[in-house]
Write the structure tokens for this entry.
Amino acid sequence: MANRCHEVDYEILGDDMQTVLVELDPGETVIAEAGAMNFMEEGIVFEARMGDGSQPDQGLVGKLFSAGRRALTGESIFMTHFSNRDPSRKRKVAFAAPYPGRIIPLDLSGVGGEILCQKEAFLCAALGTEIDIAFQRRLGTGFFGGEGFILQRLRGDGMVFVHASGAIIERDLQGESLRVDTGCLVAFQPSVDYDIERAGNLKSMFFGGEGLFLATLRGHGKVWLQSLPFSRLADRILAHAPSQGGSEKGEGSVLGGLGRLLDGR
């Protein structure tokens, strides 16, 4: 049986601020979130389209419905399609990660043809990949699971690239359970059951520093975790940023004040 998705080659460049360099044969296409492109070679053309292109005969009504579902995730209703129109040679297009972390290359044919991931994790994928949304089945998981009621569902048999913050940990569950910080969950196979539970007793919940709830993963399948959720990094930066009124407090305030004096501020 022939693959439905285009077969793209790729290379991951960089360390903490990574870029995925995708090589396209003549006629091949890769789809990406709006604004993700870093650079592209001559011969690559791009077009913003409503939908992921996985169902070319979907029709206008189907495209509008799909776009509406994407809008629920906070993403653009349009996706950018990059195609190699050079008939004689391969061409390359690069997509950059939006913040420090790692790009995870996943061959969907090797993970059962489907993964669920956090809403903003998707970066780009081979044409033919279906990008949809998945609703949380449990009310409690939706309210307290860190990612809300909606996850992204990626289906197909080609390469997809998702992005996460910090270091990436891949775990292969073999029937056991794993409890993780709700913000550290990046992606998992649908065979893994995802729920939330209270983080210990009341004292641990409010004073343990681990949040009120933990995500519980059970079953068989792969799980991808991130060591530093971007929201946690942003909160730490904001906590130590200068206040609007000009008062600057925080770690290293003495050395910081000396540096500002030497700078003439």
Q: What stands out?
A: Helices lie at 59-71, 139-144, 202-207, 230-239, 253-262. The longest helix spans residues 59-71. The radius of gyration is 21 Å. Confidence is low (pLDDT under 50) at residues 138-149, 247-255.
